[in-house]
Amino acid sequence: MTVSSIGLNLTDAIACETDDQDVLSAAFDRCATGIYRFVAYRVGDVHLADDLMQQVWLAAIRSDGRVPPAELEPWLRGVARNLIRDHWRKQARRPDQLPMPDADFAAELSRRLVNEEIPDDVLAQRETRTQLLFAITSLDADAQEIVMARYFNDESHTHLAQRFGVSERAIEGRLYRARQALRAKLERLDEEGLCER
Fold this sequence. Notes:
By secondary structure, the chain is mostly helical. It contains nine helices and no strands. It folds into two domains: 89 residues, Orthogonal Bundle (Rna Polymerase Sigma Factor, Chain: A), CATH 1.10.1740; 85 residues, Winged helix-like DNA-binding domain superfamily/Winged helix DNA-binding domain (Arc Repressor Mutant, subunit A), CATH 1.10.10.
C-alpha cells in the first residue's frame, strides 16, 4: 500500500461520509417540522422544544447510518418521545398549565369521527382541540402537513394539489389516509399524550 493509495482511500471515505451526512440531513429536514410540533405541543415551551430537537438531531448523527432514511422519522419520533419522558421524569412532574390527554375522550372522539361529522361547536371546544392536537402532532410530518393545511388553514383540494404537485384525486387519497391515521392515534392516545405505537 502506498501513501498515494491511502490518500485516495481517505478521500473516498470522506466523500462517502459527506454523502451520508447529506442524506441524513435531507431526511431529517423532511421530518423535523412534524417532530418539532410533536415535542413543542407536549412540553409547552419553545426554548425547551428547541433544546430537545437539538438532542434529537445529535441522536440522528450518532445513529451513524444504522437507521435507513425511510425509517428515520418513526425512529426520531421515538427518540423525541423518550427525551420528553426523561425530561418530565427529571422535573418530577409536568406543569399544571400543559394540556393533558384524556384517553377516554380521545377514543370517543375517534368513534365519532368514523360514524358522523362532528359539529363545529364540538370542534371549537378546548377539550376537543386538545385531544385532536395530541393526535395530529403524533402523525408523520406529511400527514400533519396535509391535515393542518386542509382543516386548520381551510385550503381547498385544488390548492393542495398545486402545492404538493399532485392531482386532486391524490390529495383525496392522502387526506383519507391521514384521517385514518388520526383516528388510530386518537384511539391509542396514552396518559402522557405520546400515543402508543
